[in-house]
UniProtKB/TrEMBL annotation:
Assigned keywords, A-Z: Acyltransferase, Cell membrane, Lipoprotein, Membrane, Transferase, Transmembrane, Transmembrane helix
Designated gene of the protein: lnt
Signal sequence bounds: none
Protein name: Apolipoprotein N-acyltransferase
Subcellular location field: Cell membrane
Length: 600
């Protein structure tokens, strides 16, 4: 029977690209049709393998719409954020475009390459090559331009009720889940389109290379081809289906075993406090005080009403400041010239900082006293988001986390390591003498260095702040740093504080929560998330949501997390799995650029 031909037209190209983004969108938080992720890439896989015309605009525009709509909630943070949103969506859309370009490069051949090189590429099953290219792009995206992990392909499975296929993230991170999804997509594409795009096995390598010479993988005007030039032994359902079935089987078996791992009960209880307080980009002092008071009243009521003894009350990002940042005088404190000219010396400045600390601690003591209701045996500590200012040779301002002990004194601090580009800093702005003075408040923050550990009851707590759970490597690197330093004692729980009221209950908030679920699996640690207008949730070490508050309501969660003593392979070895794929992706990019330059 003569194989049918997939009709080659720009309309078909657009339909294939749009189908992919629609299916991936339906895997999102609002609909959570997670099984569709296993067919979501079929459209662009076919575009890459059948060389349909007009593919560049179809793929790029479709994915731009996907990222723009998925992340449109970012625009609520500030009127000017619409510009970074457009830039962000335009940037993310480059990766699917390059993925398709690299597939075209492989399936249509490599002009000017040797037969040995062509054979080497074609000796690897196509599904493996496609998975390597997709995951390699995700790795580059997670590091380049400060990096972001939101909307990785693996996150589309976060809504899977059992989470059984997600458990490989403790070995490979979200990259492993993405790899699996691509393998299944290729198998589905090969089965569905086996008559229209099934591989043709050239009579010889020379015939393959000769046919490839006339094709430019980055051109939209190439002659459409109706069959993939990949040897039958390494393409089609003959290899892709067994590979996908084996991968799914092994993943399922590993997930079953991982979910059965015995965790231990803890004797430490946390109170997660969530509200939906409106915040402003430039918030006045009184508004900060009002927000602090609202959180204080809710916490006092909840702690006194709790049947369990609360060991720590968790407040979201920035909510603990109340107009009072925590000021620290370093040993190398230097008075700025303009203050010295006004009569300020080192001694006076240290006295002022000491007085500010005294007032901060006094307020904290009063809050602890109100929480325990006069019963000092039930005094909880407080972990909350608060501004930090360190006065050394220069004054440095951080978005931070403060740990206030049961005695009301500051026990420890953490300075946010990963800042939000354009939201908390502008690249290189401090290097421009005139421009740095024009930076509005909140955009001049400094980045902290390294993790911190808070001792709460019998547990060690790793604090994260804001976007840091949406940049997967931050938590993983913190855990690895601490494990390498003291392998016998690494954090038992990750506490993340965020203020997602900026995003007005949009899907950005839920995407943030999905990132936290995969981080919990990757680190094999429960995550306690306290959020303002966002995902106040208790996530166990298998990434399952134990309890979650509505985004638009005030409430509390009493969490006594189970202790997981596993040190995951992902924590031990980081991105070792994905690193070669990232290198392969970079090589592929250089090869595309070389080909374009050579053609010109």
């Amino acid at each position: 029977m003569k194989p049918s031909v997939w009709k080659s037209s720009k309309k078909t190209t657009w339909l294939a690209a749009i189908a992919s983004v629609v299916l991936l969108s339906l895997c999102g938080p609002s609909t959570n049709l997670w099984p569709l992720c296993f067919i979501g890439l079929v459209g662009i896989l076919q575009i890459g393998r059948t060389n349909l015309p007009g593919w560049k605009s179809a793929v790029y525009v479709s994915f731009f719409a996907f990222y723009f709509i998925s992340l449109q909630g970012l625009r609520h943070a500030h009127p000017l954020m619409i510009v970074p949103l457009i830039v962000f969506a335009a940037y993310l859309s480059v990766y699917p475009l390059l993925f398709v370009a690299m597939l075209r490069r492989i399936t249509t051949g490599a002009p000017g390459s040797t037969s040995a090189a062509s054979n080497a590429i074609r000796s690897v099953p196509f599904s493996i090559v496609a998975a390597i290219l997709w995951v390699g792009g995700e790795l580059v995206r997670n590091y380049f331009a400060t990096g972001i992990s939101v909307l990785m392909l693996g996150h589309s499975l976060a809504g899977m009720p059992s989470g059984i296929l997600l458990q490989i993230a403790d070995c490979f991170g979200t990259y492993g889940v993405s790899f699996l999804i691509v393998l299944v997509n290729v198998a589905v594409a090969d089965v569905v389109f086996r008559n229209s795009t099934r591989a043709s096995n050239p009579a010889s390598t020379e015939d393959f290379d000769q046919a490839a010479e006339s094709s430019d993988p980055m051109s939209s005007d190439s002659e459409p081809v109706t069959s993939s030039r990949w040897p039958l032994a390494c393409n089609g359902y003959i290899t892709s289906v067994p590979i996908a079935v084996i991968a799914l089987g092994l993943t399922y078996a590993y997930g079953s075993r991982a979910l059965d791992y015995p965790t231990k009960p803890s004797d430490t209880t946390f109170l997660l406090v969530g509200r939906d307080e409106q915040t402003e980009y430039q918030q006045d002092f009184q508004r900060e005080v009002d927000i602090f008071s609202a959180y204080a009243r809710q916490s006092i009521t909840a702690v006194r009403a709790s049947e369990k003894t609360i060991d720590a009350v968790i407040w979201p990002e920035s909510m603990l400041s109340g107009g009072q940042p925590w000021n620290i005088a370093e040993e190398n404190l230097t008075v700025p010239p303009h203050m010295r000219d006004a009569g300020m010396d080192d001694r006076k400045m240290r006295e002022i900082i000491a007085q500010s600390q005294l007032e901060f601690n006094r307020r904290s003591v009063d809050l602890i006293s109100a929480l325990n209701g006069g019963d000092t045996s039930r005094s909880p500590s407080i972990i909350g988001g608060c501004g930090l200012i360190r006065y050394g040779e220069t004054a440095k301002q951080f978005s931070g986390v403060i740990h206030i002990g049961p005695d009301g004194n500051v026990a420890n601090t953490y300075a946010k390591n990963h800042l939000v580009m354009f939201g908390e800093y502008i690249p290189l702005i401090k290097s421009i003498p005139i421009a740095k003075d024009m930076v509005p408040p909140g955009l001049g923050l400094d980045a902290g260095v390294g993790p911190a550990v808070f001792e709460v009851g019998s547990l060690d707590v790793l604090p994260n702040l804001c976007i840091e759970t949406a940049v997967e490597r931050v938590s993983v690197n913190h855990m690895r740093t601490l494990w390498q330093k003291t392998p016998e004692r690494i954090p038992d729980v990750i506490v993340t504080l965020t203020n997602d009221a900026w995003f007005d209950h949009s899907s950005v908030v839920e995407h943030h929560l999905r990132c936290a679920q995969l981080v919990a699996i990757g680190c094999r640690r429960p995550i306690l998330s306290a959020a303002n207008g966002g995902p106040t949730a208790w996530i166990d070490s298998s990434g399952r949501i134990v309890e979650k508050l509505p985004l638009d309501a005030a409430g509390t969660i009493v969490a006594t997390p189970q202790i997981d003593d596993r040190v995951s392979l992902y924590v031990r070895h980081g991105v070792t799995f994905a690193l070669p794929m990232g290198m392969a992706w970079v090589c592929g990019l250089f090869d595309l650029l070389r080909t374009k330059r050579k053609k010109k």
